[in-house]
What we know:
Number of domains: 3
Strand content: 15-25%
Radius of gyration: 24 Å
Number of strands: 20
Number of helices: 19
CATH class of the largest domain: Alpha Beta
Structural class: alpha+beta
CATH topology of the largest domain: Dipeptide-binding Protein, domain 3
Shape: globular
CATH superfamily of the largest domain: Dipeptide-binding Protein, Domain 3
Amino acid sequence: xxxxxxxxxxxxLILTAALGSAAHxxxxxxxxxxxxxxxxxxxxFNPFTPGSQHxxxxxxxxxxxxxFVNSINGKVTPxxxxxxxxxxxxxxxxxxxxxxxxxxxGKAFDSSDVVFTFNYIKKYPVxxxxxxxKNGLDNVKAPxxxxVVFTFNxxxxxxxxxxxxxxxxxxxxxxSQTSPATFTNAKPVGTGPFVFDSYSQQALRVLxxxxxxxxxxxxxxxxxxxxxxxxDAALFKLIKGDADYGxxxxxxxxxxxKQNKNTSYWWPTNNSNFxxxxxxxxxxNDVAFRRAIAGAIDTKEVALKAYAGAVPASEPSAIIPAQQxxxxxxxxxxxxxKYDPAAADAALTAAxxxxxxxxxxxxxDGKALxxxxxxxxxxxxxxxxxxxxxxDNLKKLGINTQIDQQQWAGYSGSMxxxxxxxxxxxxxxxxSTPYYLFYQSFAPELSAPAxxxxxxxxxxxxxxxxTQALQTFRSTSDASAQKKAVTTMVNTVLKDxxxxxxxxxxxxxxxxxxxxxxxxxAQNPYxxxxxxxxxxxxxxxxxxKPK
Length: 547
């Protein structure tokens, strides 16, 4: 028996045990396997709940959006929408919807489902995770079965990716659902290329939708997600050939590929990794404290140890390399907090955070500061390494920390509910201009009181200057006015430091190419190396083809 046959036989035993005999009896001829370096929760396929709550295939394989907007190059790929156009005053967006599409229960899809979806989000604001209705959208109507018209009361063209990325649900099933925030949608009906098959805590499986609207696609009969408890365990499955794809952050992808046959990776930069401060609690609500902490962190060391030189330290402005030439403010360099531990130590003392005779940092009340938790995902080796370096840096200031590893649901839940002290995460928002990062990170409508769920304002930081700059940016198409608005956003954040940009954030797509072709790459960037549970992953599941 050759290596591939042994791998397939071994995988069949794993899958049978995890999914049960009923699922195994369907015996798809080709299965694309995704490995996950964390655990997932209960059987929830509600596409409106945050990603920490619904299961991985929900928005990547079962439900579809109007378009996919590639965060790297801005390319728009039609999905349930076929074309779109803005009016001359940028207050009307007209979208043509795809004819001949059916929901997986056989009912016909048309523009009325799109109208229903957006009005449903309006009816239940808790579902408006990107603030679409809070930023000028006035109404959504369907003049016919293949046209949807979005009308705004003020220009807001940057909202297009949020509209494009909204999952569309069937009106005939969701109209009677009056508790969408808690609805688990255990038997999902979507228009996507796959339908739900089986669920367990160890494995998930979806099967090819035989009536999918794109002829001849998908090429694979099933997609399976396997759960592991760490990056290392996920990587082992990829190396062995027990999985075909994993979104896994590792320290040295170059060495990984050189040392392991049939492996490849694509890590395009589209964001940054940040140390977030929970500004709802002291002393992280103190600008002086945050700025001193920022000055004590050696981001070059963070990047080197986390990614072995494959990923650099982040630009302090958080503007990614591809956008710096166009958007970087001339004032940014002079406002950046420089790495200088001695200056950081002195700044803390000057701000009222003195040291005692033992070198322990005290609060303004004279009491020793507690050990602060740095929240990371359980088993995420890159983030764990970052937290270790940061902890060592802060110890020199007399500040003690401990690493708080949590599984995905707890990690994302803590970040979104502001129950952490400091936490390492990516920017929960990105796009073709810096607007998207600053909007989703600092817009008041995407924040919430501590203990309540914030869609993406993880630091709970807002500032009137940023709020006005965001409004200015989306109200104009003048390039100079937009750049001035970005300058205000960058300068304000550099002054107040609600986060510390640590390293560039790359997409962590790792592949074992022994069984499939058609993976995304720099030569064929049909998606942005999207995570396996994101809308862009759908394009990978449609493009990968058995050898």
